[in-house]
Amino acid sequence: MAEREELTWELFGTAGRELAEAIADSGFEPDLILSVARGGLFVAGALGYALDVKNLHVMNVEFYTGVDERLDLPVMLPPVPNAVDLTGARVLIADDVADTGATLKLVRDFCADHVAEVRCAVVYEKPRSEVRCEYVWRHTDKWINFPWSSLPPVVRRSGQVLDA
């Protein structure tokens, strides 16, 4: 098995705090944080508390179907945020990883025409990502074991993963 990047819950706490400090130090003050579900929910929550931003939104995007298995293109799943809610805002997009960057590009492009400014924050960014995030905790080219997804689900629900 290939070597993997291992993120523990404790290390995630450090990552979230250090990302927030980098954002604050840059002078960027987001009006809202847009999390890319599901992995971005944890990042957005940590950043929301650390940056004192209570306005959190969620965008559901399906791309990964397994370890290094993905759909041809990421797909936005309902409910899609109302663009009116984003108009004129300074938006921070939060996700766990910029792997190919396709998901972040989809979300960033969705926001671009409506917001005053959009920036991206991720725990990890991979060299092949087509999106260069403004805020990155670590760079890696390894598969990442995140604490929220390294164990199998307690239950398996049929129809929850789109077929590739």
TrEMBL record:
<dbReference type="InterPro" id="IPR029057">
    <property type="entry name" value="PRTase-like"/>
</dbReference>
<dbReference type="InterPro" id="IPR000836">
    <property type="entry name" value="PRTase_dom"/>
</dbReference>
<dbReference type="GO" id="GO:0016757">
    <property type="term" value="F:glycosyltransferase activity"/>
</dbReference>
<feature type="domain" description="Phosphoribosyltransferase">
    <location>
        <begin position="9"/>
        <end position="149"/>
    </location>
</feature>
<dbReference type="Pfam" id="PF00156">
    <property type="entry name" value="Pribosyltran"/>
</dbReference>
<keyword id="KW-0808">Transferase</keyword>
<keyword id="KW-0328">Glycosyltransferase</keyword>
<protein>
    <submittedName>
        <fullName>Phosphoribosyltransferase</fullName>
    </submittedName>
</protein>
